[in-house]
Amino acid sequence: MTLQERIEALVFLGKDMQESKEAWSQVILQAKHKNPWFTVENCEQSIQAIAENYLSEQVLTNVVNTYNALENTAPKRIGVVAAGNIPLVGIHDIISCFLSGNISIIKASEKDAVFIPYCIQRITTKYPVAKTYFEIVERLENFDAVIATGSNNTSRYFEYYFKNYPHIIRKNRNALAVLSGKESEEELLALGLDIFGFFGLGCRNVSMAFVPRGYDMAKLMNVLEPFAEIAYHNKYKNNLDYNAAIYLLNKEAHLISDFLVMRESDSLSSRIACLHYSYYDSLTEVESYLEKNSEKIQCVVSQLPLKNANCFAFGQAQSPSFLDFADNVDTLEFLQNL
Question: How far apart are CA 21 and CA 44, in angstroms?
Fold first, then answer.
Protein backbone atom coordinates (compact mmCIF):
# COMPACT_ATOMS: atom_id res chain seq x y z
CA MET A 1 0.00 0.00 0.00
CA THR A 2 1.13 3.54 -0.69
CA LEU A 3 1.33 6.07 2.11
CA GLN A 4 -1.84 7.73 0.84
CA GLU A 5 -3.67 4.39 0.82
CA ARG A 6 -2.58 3.72 4.39
CA ILE A 7 -3.83 7.14 5.44
CA GLU A 8 -7.17 6.44 3.75
CA ALA A 9 -7.45 3.13 5.62
CA LEU A 10 -6.80 4.81 8.97
CA VAL A 11 -9.25 7.62 8.23
CA PHE A 12 -11.82 4.96 7.35
CA LEU A 13 -11.26 3.30 10.74
CA GLY A 14 -11.74 6.63 12.52
CA LYS A 15 -15.01 7.29 10.70
CA ASP A 16 -16.15 3.74 11.35
CA MET A 17 -15.57 4.24 15.07
CA GLN A 18 -17.83 7.28 15.01
CA GLU A 19 -20.50 6.14 12.58
CA SER A 20 -20.94 2.37 13.05
CA LYS A 21 -22.43 2.78 16.51
CA GLU A 22 -24.32 -0.51 16.67
CA ALA A 23 -21.37 -2.65 15.60
CA TRP A 24 -18.98 -0.94 18.01
CA SER A 25 -21.55 -1.21 20.82
CA GLN A 26 -21.48 -4.97 20.45
CA VAL A 27 -17.69 -5.01 20.55
CA ILE A 28 -17.73 -2.84 23.68
CA LEU A 29 -20.02 -5.33 25.40
CA GLN A 30 -17.65 -8.17 24.48
CA ALA A 31 -14.70 -6.23 25.90
CA LYS A 32 -16.61 -5.39 29.07
CA HIS A 33 -17.49 -9.07 29.54
CA LYS A 34 -13.81 -10.03 29.38
CA ASN A 35 -12.58 -7.14 31.54
CA PRO A 36 -14.96 -5.55 34.08
CA TRP A 37 -12.76 -2.44 34.28
CA PHE A 38 -13.75 -1.69 30.67
CA THR A 39 -17.08 -0.02 31.32
CA VAL A 40 -19.19 1.13 28.39
CA GLU A 41 -18.50 4.76 29.27
CA ASN A 42 -14.72 4.26 29.40
CA CYS A 43 -14.67 2.29 26.15
CA GLU A 44 -16.71 4.93 24.37
CA GLN A 45 -14.39 7.64 25.71
CA SER A 46 -11.30 5.84 24.37
CA ILE A 47 -12.85 5.14 21.00
CA GLN A 48 -14.01 8.73 20.54
CA ALA A 49 -10.62 10.16 21.58
CA ILE A 50 -8.75 7.85 19.21
CA ALA A 51 -11.07 8.68 16.31
CA GLU A 52 -10.70 12.42 16.86
CA ASN A 53 -7.08 12.73 18.02
CA TYR A 54 -5.38 9.98 16.01
CA LEU A 55 -7.47 9.05 12.99
CA SER A 56 -8.91 12.19 11.44
CA GLU A 57 -7.62 13.12 8.00
CA GLN A 58 -6.32 16.45 9.27
CA VAL A 59 -4.40 14.84 12.13
CA LEU A 60 -2.81 12.21 9.92
CA THR A 61 -1.93 14.76 7.25
CA ASN A 62 -0.24 16.92 9.88
CA VAL A 63 1.68 13.90 11.17
CA VAL A 64 2.87 12.95 7.69
CA ASN A 65 3.96 16.54 7.03
CA THR A 66 6.05 16.42 10.21
CA TYR A 67 8.10 13.43 9.09
CA ASN A 68 9.96 12.40 5.97
CA ALA A 69 10.37 8.97 4.36
CA LEU A 70 7.09 7.50 5.61
CA GLU A 71 6.60 6.00 2.14
CA ASN A 72 8.90 3.08 3.18
CA THR A 73 9.83 0.58 0.46
CA ALA A 74 11.56 -1.80 2.91
CA PRO A 75 9.08 -2.58 5.72
CA LYS A 76 10.37 -4.01 8.97
CA ARG A 77 8.60 -6.48 11.25
CA ILE A 78 7.88 -4.71 14.55
CA GLY A 79 6.97 -6.72 17.62
CA VAL A 80 4.34 -4.81 19.58
CA VAL A 81 3.69 -5.94 23.16
CA ALA A 82 0.54 -4.05 24.06
CA ALA A 83 -0.65 -3.11 27.54
CA GLY A 84 -4.24 -3.58 28.66
CA ASN A 85 -4.78 -1.16 31.52
CA ILE A 86 -7.27 0.98 29.57
CA PRO A 87 -9.23 0.27 26.38
CA LEU A 88 -7.20 0.39 23.16
CA VAL A 89 -4.10 1.70 24.93
CA GLY A 90 -1.83 -0.12 22.45
CA ILE A 91 -3.43 1.24 19.29
CA HIS A 92 -1.04 4.20 18.91
CA ASP A 93 1.94 1.88 18.38
CA ILE A 94 0.04 -0.15 15.80
CA ILE A 95 -1.11 2.96 13.95
CA SER A 96 2.48 4.25 13.97
CA CYS A 97 3.78 1.01 12.50
CA PHE A 98 1.12 0.96 9.78
CA LEU A 99 1.45 4.64 8.96
CA SER A 100 5.23 4.24 8.59
CA GLY A 101 4.76 1.25 6.30
CA ASN A 102 5.96 -1.39 8.76
CA ILE A 103 4.39 -4.69 9.81
CA SER A 104 2.98 -5.09 13.33
CA ILE A 105 3.56 -8.43 15.05
CA ILE A 106 1.10 -7.93 17.88
CA LYS A 107 1.10 -9.61 21.28
CA ALA A 108 -2.14 -8.24 22.69
CA SER A 109 -2.85 -8.08 26.40
CA GLU A 110 -5.38 -10.58 27.77
CA LYS A 111 -7.04 -7.58 29.40
CA ASP A 112 -7.65 -5.94 26.02
CA ALA A 113 -8.02 -8.85 23.61
CA VAL A 114 -11.11 -7.61 21.76
CA PHE A 115 -10.59 -4.10 20.44
CA ILE A 116 -7.31 -4.39 18.55
CA PRO A 117 -8.35 -7.49 16.55
CA TYR A 118 -11.61 -5.75 15.72
CA CYS A 119 -9.82 -2.60 14.51
CA ILE A 120 -7.66 -4.73 12.25
CA GLN A 121 -10.71 -6.62 11.02
CA ARG A 122 -12.46 -3.36 10.10
CA ILE A 123 -9.45 -2.08 8.16
CA THR A 124 -8.72 -5.34 6.34
CA THR A 125 -12.36 -5.95 5.42
CA LYS A 126 -12.43 -2.62 3.63
CA TYR A 127 -8.82 -2.83 2.42
CA PRO A 128 -7.86 -6.54 2.02
CA VAL A 129 -4.35 -5.64 0.88
CA ALA A 130 -3.71 -4.31 4.40
CA LYS A 131 -3.75 -7.85 5.82
CA THR A 132 -0.02 -8.17 5.21
CA TYR A 133 0.63 -5.35 7.69
CA PHE A 134 -0.84 -7.05 10.78
CA GLU A 135 -0.18 -10.30 12.61
CA ILE A 136 -1.66 -11.17 15.99
CA VAL A 137 0.44 -13.78 17.76
CA GLU A 138 0.71 -15.61 21.06
CA ARG A 139 4.51 -15.43 21.02
CA LEU A 140 6.79 -12.90 19.37
CA GLU A 141 9.03 -14.46 16.73
CA ASN A 142 10.76 -13.36 13.55
CA PHE A 143 10.86 -9.61 14.21
CA ASP A 144 13.32 -6.80 13.51
CA ALA A 145 12.52 -4.43 16.37
CA VAL A 146 10.26 -4.25 19.43
CA ILE A 147 7.94 -1.77 21.12
CA ALA A 148 6.91 -3.20 24.49
CA THR A 149 4.82 -1.66 27.24
CA GLY A 150 4.54 -3.11 30.72
CA SER A 151 5.19 -2.60 34.41
CA ASN A 152 8.51 -1.80 36.04
CA ASN A 153 8.80 -5.51 36.76
CA THR A 154 8.06 -6.80 33.26
CA SER A 155 10.25 -4.11 31.72
CA ARG A 156 13.31 -5.82 33.23
CA TYR A 157 12.40 -9.01 31.39
CA PHE A 158 11.76 -7.05 28.21
CA GLU A 159 15.17 -5.39 28.47
CA TYR A 160 16.80 -8.80 28.77
CA TYR A 161 14.82 -10.63 26.09
CA PHE A 162 15.03 -7.84 23.51
CA LYS A 163 18.50 -6.50 24.30
CA ASN A 164 19.84 -7.55 20.88
CA TYR A 165 17.10 -5.75 18.95
CA PRO A 166 16.29 -2.06 18.45
CA HIS A 167 13.58 -1.41 21.01
CA ILE A 168 11.36 0.93 22.94
CA ILE A 169 10.64 -0.42 26.42
CA ARG A 170 8.05 1.44 28.49
CA LYS A 171 7.71 1.18 32.27
CA ASN A 172 5.22 2.45 34.83
CA ARG A 173 4.52 6.15 34.62
CA ASN A 174 2.01 8.48 36.23
CA ALA A 175 0.69 11.97 35.81
CA LEU A 176 0.78 14.59 38.51
CA ALA A 177 -1.03 17.85 39.08
CA VAL A 178 0.41 21.10 40.38
CA LEU A 179 -2.16 23.41 41.95
CA SER A 180 -1.72 27.08 42.67
CA GLY A 181 -4.57 27.24 45.18
CA LYS A 182 -6.40 29.74 42.99
CA GLU A 183 -8.20 27.24 40.76
CA SER A 184 -11.92 27.65 40.28
CA GLU A 185 -14.36 24.89 41.16
CA GLU A 186 -14.81 24.28 37.43
CA GLU A 187 -11.07 23.69 37.03
CA LEU A 188 -10.96 21.35 40.02
CA LEU A 189 -13.93 19.41 38.65
CA ALA A 190 -12.03 19.07 35.39
CA LEU A 191 -9.07 17.77 37.40
CA GLY A 192 -11.44 15.08 38.62
CA LEU A 193 -11.55 13.73 35.07
CA ASP A 194 -7.78 13.35 35.18
CA ILE A 195 -7.94 11.56 38.55
CA PHE A 196 -10.96 9.30 38.08
CA GLY A 197 -11.00 8.67 34.33
CA PHE A 198 -10.55 4.94 33.58
CA PHE A 199 -10.63 4.40 37.38
CA GLY A 200 -7.14 5.91 37.60
CA LEU A 201 -5.58 2.93 35.82
CA GLY A 202 -3.93 4.87 32.97
CA CYS A 203 -0.37 6.17 32.87
CA ARG A 204 -1.85 9.62 32.18
CA ASN A 205 -4.08 9.57 35.26
CA VAL A 206 -3.18 12.02 38.01
CA SER A 207 -2.09 9.95 40.99
CA MET A 208 -0.32 12.70 42.95
CA ALA A 209 -0.85 16.45 43.41
CA PHE A 210 1.45 19.23 44.56
CA VAL A 211 -0.45 21.85 46.55
CA PRO A 212 0.71 25.07 48.23
CA ARG A 213 1.35 24.76 51.93
CA GLY A 214 -1.82 25.30 53.91
CA TYR A 215 -4.04 24.07 51.07
CA ASP A 216 -7.33 22.61 52.33
CA MET A 217 -7.43 19.06 50.97
CA ALA A 218 -10.83 18.47 52.56
CA LYS A 219 -12.20 21.27 50.39
CA LEU A 220 -10.82 19.57 47.29
CA MET A 221 -12.47 16.32 48.39
CA ASN A 222 -15.80 18.13 48.64
CA VAL A 223 -15.41 19.70 45.21
CA LEU A 224 -14.81 16.24 43.73
CA GLU A 225 -18.06 14.90 45.22
CA PRO A 226 -19.77 14.70 41.77
CA PHE A 227 -17.44 11.77 41.02
CA ALA A 228 -18.76 9.77 44.00
CA GLU A 229 -20.68 7.42 41.69
CA ILE A 230 -17.39 5.81 40.71
CA ALA A 231 -17.63 3.82 43.95
CA TYR A 232 -20.70 2.02 42.58
CA HIS A 233 -18.27 0.01 40.46
CA ASN A 234 -17.62 -3.17 42.40
CA LYS A 235 -13.91 -3.60 41.64
CA TYR A 236 -13.16 0.07 42.37
CA LYS A 237 -15.10 -0.10 45.66
CA ASN A 238 -13.26 -3.25 46.72
CA ASN A 239 -9.94 -1.49 46.15
CA LEU A 240 -11.15 1.61 47.99
CA ASP A 241 -12.17 -0.39 51.06
CA TYR A 242 -9.04 -2.54 51.04
CA ASN A 243 -6.63 0.36 50.71
CA ALA A 244 -8.43 2.41 53.35
CA ALA A 245 -8.17 -0.57 55.69
CA ILE A 246 -4.42 -0.85 55.02
CA TYR A 247 -3.89 2.80 55.98
CA LEU A 248 -5.96 2.35 59.12
CA LEU A 249 -4.07 -0.77 60.18
CA ASN A 250 -0.75 0.95 59.54
CA LYS A 251 -1.98 4.04 61.40
CA GLU A 252 -1.09 6.25 58.42
CA ALA A 253 -2.78 9.65 58.40
CA HIS A 254 -5.25 10.05 55.54
CA LEU A 255 -8.49 11.64 54.46
CA ILE A 256 -11.28 9.37 53.30
CA SER A 257 -14.65 9.77 51.65
CA ASP A 258 -17.08 7.31 50.10
CA PHE A 259 -15.13 7.41 46.83
CA LEU A 260 -11.51 8.45 47.47
CA VAL A 261 -8.63 8.23 49.92
CA MET A 262 -6.16 11.12 50.10
CA ARG A 263 -2.77 10.58 51.70
CA GLU A 264 0.21 12.90 52.13
CA SER A 265 3.12 11.45 50.20
CA ASP A 266 5.56 12.57 47.51
CA SER A 267 5.37 9.17 45.83
CA LEU A 268 4.08 9.40 42.26
CA SER A 269 2.45 6.00 42.26
CA SER A 270 -0.65 5.62 44.40
CA ARG A 271 -3.02 2.75 45.04
CA ILE A 272 -6.32 2.46 43.14
CA ALA A 273 -8.89 4.88 44.61
CA CYS A 274 -6.11 6.85 46.31
CA LEU A 275 -4.61 10.26 45.59
CA HIS A 276 -1.26 11.31 47.02
CA TYR A 277 -0.55 14.96 47.77
CA SER A 278 2.51 16.92 48.80
CA TYR A 279 2.86 20.51 50.01
CA TYR A 280 5.27 22.96 48.41
CA ASP A 281 6.60 26.35 49.52
CA SER A 282 7.95 27.47 46.15
CA LEU A 283 7.63 26.38 42.54
CA THR A 284 11.38 25.82 42.52
CA GLU A 285 10.79 22.81 44.76
CA VAL A 286 8.21 21.46 42.33
CA GLU A 287 10.43 22.04 39.31
CA SER A 288 13.29 20.24 41.04
CA TYR A 289 10.99 17.29 41.73
CA LEU A 290 9.82 17.21 38.11
CA GLU A 291 13.40 17.16 36.85
CA LYS A 292 14.49 14.48 39.30
CA ASN A 293 11.52 12.23 38.52
CA SER A 294 11.18 12.96 34.81
CA GLU A 295 11.51 9.27 33.87
CA LYS A 296 8.52 8.40 36.06
CA ILE A 297 6.21 11.21 34.91
CA GLN A 298 3.99 10.79 31.87
CA CYS A 299 2.52 14.28 31.94
CA VAL A 300 1.79 17.25 34.20
CA VAL A 301 -1.59 18.89 34.71
CA SER A 302 -1.34 22.52 35.74
CA GLN A 303 -2.08 26.11 34.81
CA LEU A 304 1.26 27.27 36.26
CA PRO A 305 4.32 28.20 34.15
CA LEU A 306 6.58 25.31 35.15
CA LYS A 307 10.07 24.94 33.68
CA ASN A 308 10.77 21.85 31.58
CA ALA A 309 7.18 20.63 31.89
CA ASN A 310 4.76 20.08 29.04
CA CYS A 311 1.62 20.97 30.96
CA PHE A 312 -1.90 19.90 30.05
CA ALA A 313 -4.99 21.86 31.00
CA PHE A 314 -7.22 20.43 33.71
CA GLY A 315 -9.34 17.65 32.29
CA GLN A 316 -7.11 17.08 29.26
CA ALA A 317 -4.57 14.54 30.50
CA GLN A 318 -6.43 11.69 28.83
CA SER A 319 -6.75 13.50 25.50
CA PRO A 320 -3.22 13.50 24.07
CA SER A 321 -2.57 14.41 20.46
CA PHE A 322 -0.97 11.89 18.12
CA LEU A 323 2.41 13.54 18.66
CA ASP A 324 2.19 13.40 22.48
CA PHE A 325 4.26 10.23 22.50
CA ALA A 326 4.22 7.95 25.53
CA ASP A 327 7.30 8.36 27.75
CA ASN A 328 8.34 11.26 25.45
CA VAL A 329 9.89 8.75 23.05
CA ASP A 330 9.13 9.56 19.42
CA THR A 331 7.78 6.28 18.06
CA LEU A 332 7.72 7.43 14.44
CA GLU A 333 11.30 8.66 14.59
CA PHE A 334 12.33 5.29 16.05
CA LEU A 335 10.56 3.45 13.22
CA GLN A 336 12.04 5.72 10.57
CA ASN A 337 15.59 5.11 11.76
CA LEU A 338 15.45 1.31 11.68
Answer: 10
